[in-house]
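Exercise 4. Each item below gives a protein and its sequence. For each, produce the structure-token representation.

Item: LytR/AlgR family response regulator transcription factor (Chryseobacterium kwangjuense).
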Amino acid sequence: MANLTIVSVDDEYPALELIRKYCAQMEDVDLVKIFQDPEQALEYLKENRVDLVILDINMPYINGIELLRQLPYQPLCIFLTLETQYAVKAFEMDVVHYLVKPVDFDTFRKAINKAKDFLQFKNSTKHKKKEDFIMFKSNYVMHKVLLEDVRWVQGFGEYIILVTHLKKYMILERMTNFEEKFQSLGFIRIHKSYIVLSSHIGSYDTAHVYLKDGGKLPLGRTYKNALKAYLN
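Answer:
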């Protein structure tokens, strides 16, 4: 995989120097430019595509959110800022991570690795097909989960809970949207509140679906025929 190309924009030079220092300690990362002037950064980014931009938000002339919106393409973005009130807005803009200053190296490294994972997913590289995992956002952070680790998805109104063998993720998304987005990967609705991977189903009866790992989920009456047709 090629190096992750990065441009960092912050009106505070010490913050830029810290990012330069952190990037120098990481493999497969290329910090190509840093800018204290966001207007200069915008002009550069309009003419030069990069994989990731690391942006402060509260800057003179143009803030980080406005800068990102004015780009003719959509690079990955990490906001690194003192401001906490823009986290929801960042979530809506599908940024990879939202870091609050001061940030230590380990936290920064994890955010960069999230960006690498997401770029890998977008590019569908030869070494890792997108069918092997899904990417989603939970608590303002992009996550990668292998399909083999997914147990089930449960709906709670505007949210879903994605249950894996290790942990649970709360995601701001409706069941119908999740189903449509990942149906091609083998996810199937078995109940108004449950979605599972067809490859993880061991058996089913009139009332339940039994997973290969021992889990048992309810089978909705209106979903029985669809499940039978899908598996047969």
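Check: Residues 105-123 form the longest helix (19 residues).
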